[in-house]
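Suppose a colleague, Dr. K., hands you the sequence of a protein chain of 360 amino acids and asks what its three-dimensional shape might be. Before reaching for any lab equipment, you can write down a predicted structure in token form. Begin with the sequence itself:
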Amino acid sequence: MRDLFAKAKKTGGIVFLDEIDSVGRARNGNAPGGGANDERESTLNALLVEMDGFGKDSNVIVIAATNRPDVLDPALLRAGRFDRQVTVAPPDRKGRTRLLELYTADRRTAADVDFVALARRMPGLTGADIANLVNQAALEAARADREELTTDDFAEALATVMMGRARRSATVTERDRQITAWHEAGHAVVALMLPGAHDPVQVTIVPRGSAGGVTWMSGDDAAFLTGAEARARLAVSLAGRAAEEILLHGDFTQGASSDIASATALAQRMVAEWGMSSLGLAAVGPEHAGSGLLERVHAEADGLMTDALARARALLAAHRALLEVVVAELLAEETIDLDRLRTLWSATEPGAVAEAAPTR
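The predicted structure, expressed as tokens, is then:
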């Protein structure tokens, strides 16, 4: 560390320390991720000394990056050191469009590829994710012996990045196909019915990643989530379980484990952070252990999830015909996109409308 700064002072310039938390963790063993490490603490002390007391004529600028600012030693964040923090959020739709253009600048793309439309379908993706997506699209084109990237290449690459690579060679029993089709159809139908839920962009029973099937929701760039929208997302998360109960006459499988985990995380934030339950507006955290508040948070979150499951059951019962049509289509075609889902809906329930958004 001393040698690094000695060189920087000689020539002037920028010292960039990536993953600063690897050496800059708090020296308190009770801090998040803390613990004694003589080598790391020596490095941290050297860094603190080098950054202390720079004069106005200093020709060295120090920049660092981390995904864990919460674990940094307080001494690093004092005035004169890393006293200015810049949060770098994932790119918005315009930024994603520009990144797609950047990463495809040296590749041949078909004239029908619409980067703006593609960017709308990938909220939350970072620059690294988009670079990976373009590489995946190139692989798809190479497998098909094409010299340019097409819309289909990007669509398959996006599905791979978002949901994992399709495992078409996997052996799946007919019983498992049936359960998967009902499970994914449950997610899709409830998502269609609830205005506060994201649209189901694609539903597939082709195994992807570690999942036997996937319902891919559209997402968006919205920064705020209303109580009605959060409850709608809970219902969509648990709709796969509700659909399994219909198929299995009240029984169900372990297939909803990841859905339950994501729904639990959302419900707990609704209760403990966002004041979206009868527990009230107070924020509740680990520091309240032993007070009984954590148990109340769990009970409130469980209540929200129970209500969401009941809502999903009611919607699937009311739209049973559509559910069965979507299941049949999945078993026949394996993958359905949003336009096809809407066509099936209008054909099965002419003039039907989605459930009105609940009041908060």
